[in-house]
Amino acid sequence: MAGTTDNYRTTDILLGAGRLYVNVGIPANNARLAIDATTLTPDSASSAVHAGATKAGAKLTVTTSWDEYFVDEFPDPIVTNLSQTGMQFEGELAGVLDMTLLEYLSPGAGTYSTASGYKQLTVGRRATTYTGVAVVAPRADDSTKVVVAHIYKAVNTAGITMDFGRKTQGFTPFNFKGYAIGTRDADDTLGIIWHTIA
Amino acid sequence: MKAITYDSVIAKVGKDRADEVMHEICLIHGGASLGDVKPMMGGLDVSALSESDIAKIQALLTEKPKKDGK
Q1: Residues of chain A with pLDDT under 70
Q2: A→B interface, C-beta within 8 Å
Q3: Do A132 and B40 touch (CB under 8 A)?
Q4: Where are the beta strands (DSSP E) in chain A?
Q5: I need a surface site. Which of A77, A136, A181, B29 has the fewest CB within 10 A?
């Protein structure tokens, strides 16, 4: 008999600002977003677009909800079954006057255009478009390595907010909610979280 | 090779053949279907594909449409 080995996982903590990218191409099955070894940013072939500064970073949430089943003989649930899964990024973006960014944030409603003297976002009705979203951040224990969270197909469900105020810097919230790509492997339909290793 | 969007396929092969060609590209890519890619802004990232798969995609994007009965 022997005791269990401690493992405080202090080299696996998450600390440090990441970069949020939209317009990220869908990787092939069993592939990951290619990261440039020098800049530690997505390879330009991915079509990724940096979404800019945030108010307090980006928060990834993976959710699962469970149904519970009962029999009359016991008061406790006897079995459970996964009912729903979800994956989303939340936060607030600083670049509220970037009309191309606002178009990414308003799928199905916003249309960007520009001509001499102006850039604009018209708001109305259009076909819903999806975007791949990823956050790439350096690892706290080794800044030459990165951690990546990637939702393959997402829609911002938070809309656009613009605060006009003398003492208020306007930030616009984002909530990129993931939607499944059913033709991918069953265990890889929504997205991926991964990091580079030595 | 840059990511392939549905719009970029339309630009290469025209609207009439875009669905057919995009479907073939999706089969080679393996990561999404035509219905997923059509409304995607970023398209398909093909950077992890083999050279032979890239060559097949480039051939699809450049080949002339086959005429019926020929």
Answers
A1: none
A2: 22-29, 31-34, 43-48, 104, 127-132, 152-153, 181-184
A3: yes
A4: 19-22, 49-50, 54-69, 79-93, 110-115, 118-123, 131-139, 142-156, 172-178, 191-195
A5: A77
